[in-house]
Amino acid sequence: MDETYSIGEFSKLTGIPVRTLHYYEELGLLKPLRQENGHRIYKTEDMVELQKILNLKLLGFSLTQIGELLKLPKYDHSLVEMLRLQQQAFEVKLVQIKQSLEWIDRMIAIVQAEDQLEHSLLFSLIRNMNQEDMQRKWVANHLSEYTAQTLFDRSAEAIKKMDAETVRFSQDVKRLSKGPIDSQEAQTVIGTYVNWAMTYIDEKAIDNFRNLDEEQFTQLDHLVEMPLNERETAWLDKALAHYFSKYMLTEQGELTANAPIITRES
Question: How far is CA 42 from CA 3, 7, 225, 239, in A?
Fold first, then answer.
């Protein structure tokens, strides 16, 4: 005769809480016998069914899907198809998890390198990270594939260095925006950042940038977020215009005097 268990005994034996066993019964996944007094009685076959439920949960099936699978007299091609769908779903989740882990690693590096980091800057960086795939496509389509590769197809350490440069420049702009655009320090900071940025851009990208229309600039503005307020953004625009009015780009990507301004108005 099969051994029987009360719900408390069955719970201890299987490690599944009584509340969960009740829920599985409500969904029709488990069907213990009932005594005249209403007490549940579990048998060995209930333990087998419970193991099926737990194994299918490990494969990522929902309880609704598990209920449908348990009704099948045997597992056939329908199970194979469901398993393939689960496989695809897990592959998508795996990509998302890897991406999130990469972002977390970058944020840890940024926070550890800075004594203090404003909330606006931190969350601006996160939002930009989330749009990097779209940013890359925009750069490749509107500027050049070379520029897209040098900006986005880099090692983890190179990406962290770019993050650090972005943070440093943003903080410098916030600090310097309280003063004149033509101060020596302001122009040095602008020049250092521009020359650094130009190492990622080829001549084709520069030419294409000059020919962007207003709609394309609007698209870029929506894709790339600078963690600056309205006053700081206005200061940066003026400081860049002043800087570019004094310097020009050479074939090597360096800046020399008396250059045309590379701005939207050019």
Answer: 9, 7, 60, 78
How many whole angstroms from its chain centre is CA 108?
Answer: 14
CB 215 within 8 A of CB 113: no
CB 189 within 8 A of CB 176: yes
Q: Is the whole-model pTM more than 0.70? A: no
Cβ contact 201:252 at 8 Å: no
Half-sphere exposure of 66 (CA within 13 A, CB side): 20
All residues at 6 or more sequence positions from 168 whose CB lies less than 8 Å from its CB, including other chains? none
C-alpha torsion sign, points 229, 231, 232, 237: positive
Cβ proximity of 56 and 66 under 8 Å = yes
Question: What's the token pair of residue 194?
Answer: 């521009």
**pLDDT per residue as tens digits for the range 17-34:** 999 999 999 999 999 999
Contact 106, 129 (CB under 8 A): yes
Burial of 164 (C-beta count, 10 Å sphere; 0-12/13-18/19+): middle
What tens digit of pLDDT does each residue of 161-198 get? 989 988 999 999 999 999 999 999 999 999 998 888 88
d(CA 170, CA 192): 13
Task: Give the integer Cα–Cα distance in Å for 208 and 223.
Answer: 18
